[in-house]
Amino acid sequence: VSTNPWLNRFLDNTQSQLPGATLRAIQVELVNVAEELLNISDGWRETVRVRVRQGRTTASLAADTAGARVARLIALVGDNDIPVAASLQNDGDLLLRDEAPADATLEATISLLPGPVTDDRPYPVLPDWMWQRETAAMTHGVLGRMMGQRGKPYTSTQMAAYHMRMFNRMAADLRVRTATGNLLGGQAWGYPQDFQVRRKR
Amino acid sequence: VVADLATVQNYVDRARVLLQDQGTTERYPDADIVDALNSGISEAARVRPDLFLTYLRTRTIPSYSVGSLATAVDIDPIWRSTFLNYIVGYIQIRDDEDTQDARAAAFLNTFVAQLTMMRSTPA
After folding, report:
1. Which of A38, A183, B17, B61 is most buried, judging by how many CB atoms fall within 10 Å of its CB?
2. Contact partners, residue A60, CB within 8 Å, separation at least 6
């Protein structure tokens, strides 16, 4: 039994609706769902310091949070919060558009994903707020993915569609809440996806 | 009473109850029942690989022998009694003298049905 009451709530909800599901199978899907939720929303963010060297265009970028990995670069600023043009390479290195004019320490805002799990630590490392605020979304995601599997006692295409719809709705909501800083009165709607003209970078 | 089905011996004892093989002279050797348990695990890993996820990374599944009846059987507690159906069906379908094909087939079908659908556990 976990000491995390939110994890217990998640397990109670999923196990009671997935008869015959093993705990291991639920843990596997939780990892997938947490990653998908954070990939959709960029909801887990932190600001880290990045050291750049004069004349260089690359710098290494890593998350400060143990057990987390970098998903995307949200912003990069230098002195006086002046934006610095850069991109994030697939290997995790920061690529500056221009050579650094001098040694400097920049501040990068990055979004995070949970790192790999192990047999001894089968649950993804997630910030406390995710358990407290996104347990329902993760529950819907796990139920949807598992009910969509073939040949299981808990297989239900109808319920899988329902839970995935709820998960996608909650993930989109988290993305909007993150973008508006959970500001009451901020833009409370997501742009209609039918009108989407470019993919998230 | 064998309630928990924790060890290989537990499966052998419980299977004998269903096979009505609790006389002073046992009809079915322990080795046959353990063989049936191993076959059931193999079949379950095919139908429900999620029951043996960790093993399947290395393409292995749990296997037991008559020489280690006290060994714990690594099957999720909620699925243990289901394997009794396979053991009984497997034993009965290979027994030429006491064959009840329909009953054996029913046990084997129940085993797969329980793994893949919402079904009760008669065993």
Report:
1. A38
2. A50, A92, A93, A94
- What is the model's pLDDT at position A92? 86
Contact B116 A152 (CB under 8 A): yes
Q: How many CA atoms lie within 13 A of A94 on its CB side?
A: 31
**What H or E segment, with its residue span, contains residue A166?**
helix A157-179
Whether the pLDDT of residue B3 is over 60: the answer is no
Classify residue A35 by burial, with Cβ atoms within 10 Å: 0-12, 13-18, 19+: middle
Query: With pLDDT > 70 as the criterion, what percentage of chain A qualifies?
Result: 91
User: Residue B76 and residue A22: Cβ atoms within 8 Å?
Assistant: yes
Task: Provide, as residue numbers in chain A, all residues whose Cβ is less than 8 Å from the Cβ of B53.
Answer: 22, 24-25, 28
ipTM of the complex: 0.84
d(CA B61, nearest CA chain A) in Å: 16
Phi, psi of A94 (to 5 degrees): -85, 130
List the strands of the sheet with A45-52, edge to edge.
A45-52, A104-114, A68-77
pLDDT class of B102 with cuts at 50, 70, 90: confident
| Least confident piece of the model among A40-54, A91-105, A160-174, B107-121 | B107-121
State the Cα–Cα distance between residues B13 and A184, nearest whole angstrom: 65
3-state DSSP of chain B: CCCCCCEHHHHHHHHHHHCCCCCCCCCCCHHHHHHHHHHHHHHHHHHCHHHHHHHHCCCCCCCCCHHHCCCECCCCHHHHHHHHHHHHHHHHHHCCCCCCHHHHHHHHHHHHHHHHCCCCCCC
